[in-house]
């Protein structure tokens, strides 16, 4: 097995998501990787269109884009070498047989919210929650960016 660098295109979506019934949204970014710029740009347009149809999501188009990048990757000589490198993993397939599903790289707002302590009772480091809003540690006491939906 060798190591190499491969070119990928990173799709970044910058959005602000409001929980149901709330007027304050939680800013978040997530990245997806594609092998071609065309696939990345198609996915970008589809995701932006889909998310903008939601009443609770605002997309910042100026921070959402496809950018070329590189990732370090393990290179195997054959499918047998892949199976040998990870004998406990089942279901390895040749690249043309693999499904095109991308793994989610973000944790949903509600999942993250459940794991955070209440800000009223929290004096430690890190994020906390105030009702349905996540307050990031770096944003405490600072001015907050206001997101508005353009209709």
How would you portray this structure in words?
The structure is a single chain. The longest helix has 16 residues, at 37-52. The chain has 2 domains: 1-86; 107-137, no CATH class. With 151 residues, it is an alpha+beta fold. It has helices at residues 37-52, 79-85, 109-114, and strands at residues 2-17, 26-34, 57-59, 65-75, 128-130, 133-135. Strand 5 (128-130) and strand 6 (133-135) form a beta hairpin. It contains 3 helices and 6 strands, in the order E-E-H-E-E-H-H-E-E. The strands form 2 sheets. Strands 1, 2, 3 and 4 form a 4-stranded antiparallel beta sheet that branches. It has a two-stranded antiparallel ribbon with strand order 5-6.
Defining key terms:
19% helix, 6 strands, extended, 3 helices, alpha+beta, 151 residues, two-stranded antiparallel ribbon
Distance between the termini: 53 Å
Provide the succession of SSEs.
Answer: EEHEEHHEE
What summary fits the major beta sheet?
4 strands, antiparallel
Number of helices: 3
Main structural class: alpha+beta
Total domains, how many?
Answer: 2
Considering DSSP H and I runs of 4 or more, what fraction of the residues is helical? 10-25%
How many strand elements?
6
């Amino acid at each position: 097995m060798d190591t190499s660098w491969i070119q990928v295109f990173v799709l970044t979506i910058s959005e602000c998501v409001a929980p149901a019934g709330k007027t304050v949204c939680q800013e978040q970014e997530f990245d997806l990787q594609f092998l071609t710029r065309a696939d990345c740009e198609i996915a970008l347009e589809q995701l932006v269109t889909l998310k903008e149809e939601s009443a609770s999501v605002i997309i910042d188009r100026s921070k959402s884009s496809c950018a070329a990048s590189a990732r370090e990757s393990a290179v195997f000589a054959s499918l047998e070498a892949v199976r040998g490198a990870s004998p406990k993993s089942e279901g390895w397939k040749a690249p043309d047989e693999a499904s095109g599903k991308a793994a989610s790289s973000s944790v949903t707002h509600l999942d993250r919210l459940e794991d955070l302590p209440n800000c009223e009772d929290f004096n430690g480091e890190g994020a906390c929650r105030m009702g349905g809003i996540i307050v990031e540690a770096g944003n405490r006491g600072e001015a907050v960016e206001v997101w508005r939906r353009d209709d």
